[in-house]
């Protein structure tokens, strides 16, 4: 049984399976892929979570964007090598099947389902907030009870009962209004986020009717939102006050790294490009180019917009859900704020479009391998899209977006993504070890890490002892049980570095994938324990489904007996 759990698919077998009657339309070129990547990356992150990140870390968040992009570059190189070797849909799921076997492939596929479902939900909720704000700007007021998750209204009502009206802020008052004016069934208020659910269904319909239609819509929306971001940067430069950049890191390294989840959320979209491999005209050439171009463009945009926002307004004012519009209202440029609000709706729609495009293709690939029901691999005869998987995706995203608070989802999004990124980087090391890299039309540049990985570990500890005495003192004050409870991921990070140093010395590991593994592990260690608990529970549910269905119905199981 152990051997069956780690059975691998050969590249030739995966390519053959992808060509057996899937019928996906090959219409995407490198420009289309770059557009889809920018659509996914420049979405809710730059129009929403960037405000919270700046509030927590100050202007130094611009450096965190560079650091996270740096991590993503190494991961993108690994993705690009896999994409040029195995040019099929499925993203990290397919790559794990080649490198580590079926069980790891299932775990990654299941983690990606969580990543895209949660990301889609966050984007849909964020879209709803901007859409309602835009309508209010035109004098159209929707009832509050159809514009938010019930949790916001219940929290506001509880706060009102405990502390009175004087304690409520603007958002609390909106929640209280929703609670008081909502229709009731058995004295329970009926409250839901109708715009979030509606936009999810509309985007799902667009994705359902064709990749070409989706690509055209994405291209138009990307041009609009990149244009408005450039306009914000150029217009905002004239309102910058350099004193707002002082102090640059008001809450120190802890404040900056505390925003890892929000910042990383801004970048996770680049791996969605790889899910469209079977719809590319020349995937082995275009996918690697598109991934790197996307990261470069988006990093420049994020750093520029962060410096402009924190230069226009002091970071303490940026704890808002619509920071780009807010800063122009703050400086009295209301016309620009209105333009930004309208454009934000378009921008976030494009991000939702790409996420809804990616998830059905992962399900389709898992179904094609026998790990999910055959219905998920069904291709529409007219539209040439994974029809059943697309409909299920719409339902899975629309229902939570109607009833759940965005706060619940943001941090959770990053856990599964980090996990997938680490396995993809490790997969490149495996490909190098067994000779699969010889088939890659794009390769991660090889730098021998035989000695560098170990030397880097020693230098890292020297730096810790030289410049992080406060952190060392904090560790010494913790009991063994507290270290296990709160710092176990940090221990995993250092232990993994030691293991990679030993294996790298023995097998001459390529340095760049190792750096990708270590940076992603470090960023993982900065996430909260509650996110890990939910993620582990999600994986346990996935394992139950795998052993109940996928293990027995796997095509490899039928081949190997």
UniProtKB/TrEMBL annotation:
Localization: Membrane
Keywords for this protein: Membrane, Transmembrane, Transmembrane helix, Transport
Topology class, membrane: Multi-pass membrane protein
GO molecular function, one term: amino acid transmembrane transporter activity
Limits of the Cationic amino acid transporter C-terminal domain: 511-554
Protein name per the record: Amino acid/polyamine/organocation transporter (APC superfamily)
GO CC terms of this entry: membrane
Gene3D superfamilies assigned to the protein according to its UniProt record, in alphabetical order: Amino acid/polyamine transporter I
Membrane-spanning intervals of the chain: 33-55, 61-80, 92-113, 190-208, 220-240, 252-270, 290-315, 335-358, 408-431, 451-468, 489-509, 529-549
UniProt keyword annotation of Metal-binding present: no
InterPro entries: AA/rel_permease1, CAT_C
Organism: Sphingobacterium paludis
């Amino acid at each position: 049984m152990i051997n069956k759990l780690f059975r691998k698919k050969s590249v030739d077998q995966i390519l053959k399976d992808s060509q057996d009657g899937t019928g996906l339309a090959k219409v995407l070129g490198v420009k289309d892929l770059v557009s889809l990547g920018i659509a996914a990356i420049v979405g809710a992150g730059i129009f929403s979570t960037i405000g919270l990140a700046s509030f927590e870390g100050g202007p130094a968040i611009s450096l965190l964007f560079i650091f996270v992009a740096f991590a993503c570059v190494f991961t993108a190189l690994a993705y690009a090598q896999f994409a040029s070797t195995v040019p099929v849909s499925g993203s990290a799921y397919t790559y794990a099947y080649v490198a580590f076997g079926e069980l790891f492939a299932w775990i990654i596929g299941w983690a990606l389902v969580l990543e895209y479902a949660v990301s889609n939900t966050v984007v849909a909720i964020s879209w709803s907030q901007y859409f309602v704000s835009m309508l209010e700007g035109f004098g159209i007021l929707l009832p509050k009870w159809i514009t938010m998750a019930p949790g916001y209204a219940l929290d506001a009502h509880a706060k009102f009962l405990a502390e009175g009206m004087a304690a409520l802020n603007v958002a609390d008052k909106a929640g209280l209004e929703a609670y008081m004016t909502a229709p009731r069934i058995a004295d329970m208020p009926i409250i839901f986020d109708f715009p979030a659910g509606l936009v999810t269904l509309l985007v799902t319909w667009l994705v359902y009717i064709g990749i070409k239609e989706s690509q055209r819509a994405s291209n138009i929306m990307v041009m609009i939102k990149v244009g408005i971001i450039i306009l914000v940067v150029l217009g905002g430069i004239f309102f910058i006050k350099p004193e707002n950049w002082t102090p640059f890191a008001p809450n120190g390294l802890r404040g900056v790294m505390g925003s890892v989840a929000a910042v990383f959320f801004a970048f996770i979209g680049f791996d969605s490009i790889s899910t469209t491999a079977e719809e590319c005209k020349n995937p082995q050439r275009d996918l690697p180019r598109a991934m790197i171009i996307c990261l470069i463009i988006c990093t420049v945009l994020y750093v520029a917009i962060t410096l402009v926002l924190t230069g226009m307004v002091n970071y303490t004012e940026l704890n808002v859900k619509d920071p780009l519009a807010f800063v122009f209202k703050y400086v009295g440029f209301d016309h620009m704020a209105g333009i930004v609000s309208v454009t934000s709706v378009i921008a976030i729609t494009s991000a939702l479009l790409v996420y809804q495009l990616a998830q059905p293709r992962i399900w389709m690939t898992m179904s094609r391998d026998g790990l999910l029901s055959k219905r998920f691999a069904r291709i529409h005869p007219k539209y040439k899209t994974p029809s059943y998987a697309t409909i299920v995706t719409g339902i899975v995203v629309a229902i939570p977006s109607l009833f759940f608070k965005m706060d619940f989802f943001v941090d959770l999004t990053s856990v599964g993504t980090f996990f997938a990124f680490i396995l993809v980087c490790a997969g490149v090391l495996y490909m190098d070890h067994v000779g699969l890299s010889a088939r890659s039309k794009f390769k991660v540049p090889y730098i021998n890490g035989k000695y560098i990985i170990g030397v880097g570990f020693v230098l890292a500890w020297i730096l810790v002892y030289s410049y992080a005495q406060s952190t060392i003192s904090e560790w010494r004050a913790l009991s063994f049980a507290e270290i296990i409870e709160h710092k176990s991921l940090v221990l995993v990070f250092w232990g993994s570095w030691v293991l990679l140093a030993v294996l790298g010395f023995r097998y001459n590991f390529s340095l760049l994938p190792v750096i990708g593994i270590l940076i992603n592990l470090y960023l993982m260690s900065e996430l909260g324990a509650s996110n890990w608990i939910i993620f582990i529970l999600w994986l346990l549910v996935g394992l139950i489904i795998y052993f109940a269905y996928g293990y027995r119905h796997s095509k490899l199981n039928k081949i190997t007996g």
